[in-house]
Amino acid sequence: MHAYLYTLSRHPRHWLHTCILAFAMTATTLSGVVYADEPWPSKPVRIVVPFTAGGTTDVVARVLGARLGEMWHQSVIIDNRPGAGGAIGATMTAKSPPDGYTLLMASGSMFTVNPYLYRNLPYTLKDFDYITNVASGPMLVLVNDAVPARSLKELIALAKSQPKKLNFGSAGNGSQVHMAAEALAEAAGIDITHVPYKGEALAYNDLLAGQVQMVVGNIAAASTFAKSGRARALAVTGPARSPMMPDVPTAKEAGLPGYETVGWFALVTAAGTPQDIIDKVQRDTAKVLAEPAIRDKLASQGMTAVGNTPAELRKGIETESAKWKTVVSHRNLSID
Predict the structure, then answer these.
(1) What InterPro entries does the annotation carry (predicted)?
(2) Rounded to an integer, what distance in angstroms lies between the CA atom of residue 217 and that of residue 51?
């Protein structure tokens, strides 16, 4: 003890330097602990929507994002990046830092169709970590009011009498809206012409203007035009009639057995995101989707809340991919 005090008295500068160094190391350690325990999210979160505003993907993202923002006490920003059947938004998300601050609200076809449809797809399924299926819902076969067909059977007969003359619009190549119509054509044995747009809303604009004769669209958007009398609904593509359009038959009831397709929307993020962040986003999303108010909002859009696990989402993608691979092959579809 005496030796220690003697050293301090003889070398005060050395002692002061040692104290400063020790304080700096302690501060560094403490700041590291604070950083490591910093709750996520500690800044705004972005949800990329790979289609235009106003479409079903956008609506689902905004319903979810608003509530997550309240839960997280952070802004959740909806970032619309349309184009290339969702590939622009998907690629942006895949290249973002794997920290959970950039999420993608993907339509199902981006992972179950596009890998078979695009020859040079700028992303792969391995570029993402999968979080949860947010919502699903049927599609609606919608025609321009000037089209003489009053039923699905009549529409199929009209298309067969005029091969390739019936045009259908979609939200873009490979979109769920595109593939729902291709699957209908496959099941009905008809030859119709695809006109892609950069979003579902734009396809409806041209449907009402008569530039295209048909859209097989997400029921939330499509039903508004049917209810207003500006277009005619011929069939629902799901396994049962929709509460939104209870008088409209399913495709099976309308005379096309074997044709059934449901659109769905899922949250994914860049591959390599820490598992605890993925788990948190999944848990919190599931909590939001369990809230009656949120379920009612989605139901008003013709959607059913899901909120499943990452493993269940991946399994669903694998199962559905086999179906769409066959449709793409049989319809001889490909995009450079």
Answers:
(1) BUG, Bug_dom1
(2) 14
15-55: per-residue pLDDT in tens? 444 444 444 444 444 434 334 457 999 999 999 999 888 88
pLDDT digits (tens, 9 = 90+) for 236-250: 999 999 999 999 999
Maximum average pLDDT range among 116-120, 197-201, 269-273: 269-273
The closest of 314, 65, 330, 309 to 182, measured between CA atoms, is 330
Domains of the chain: 45-137+263-331 (3.40.190.150), 138-254 (3.40.190.10)
State the virtual CA torsion across 79, 84, 90, 95 in degrees, nearest 10: -100
Q: Which DSSP string do the residues of 31-74 spell out, in sequence order? A: HHHHHHT--S-SS-EEEEESS-TTSHHHHHHHHHHHHHHHHHTS
250 DSSP β-pair partners: 236
pLDDT band at 56 (very low <50, low <70, confident <90, very high): confident
Q: Helix axis angle, 2-10 relative to 12-36, nearest 10°?
A: 100
Cα dihedral 268→109→252→151 (10° resolution): 120
- Angstrom distances, CA of residue 204 to CA of 208, 254, 261: 6, 23, 20
Name residue 168's beta-bridge partners: 194, 214
Please, what is the Cα angle at 136 between 145 and 325, to 5 degrees? 85
Strand partners, 268: 104, 130
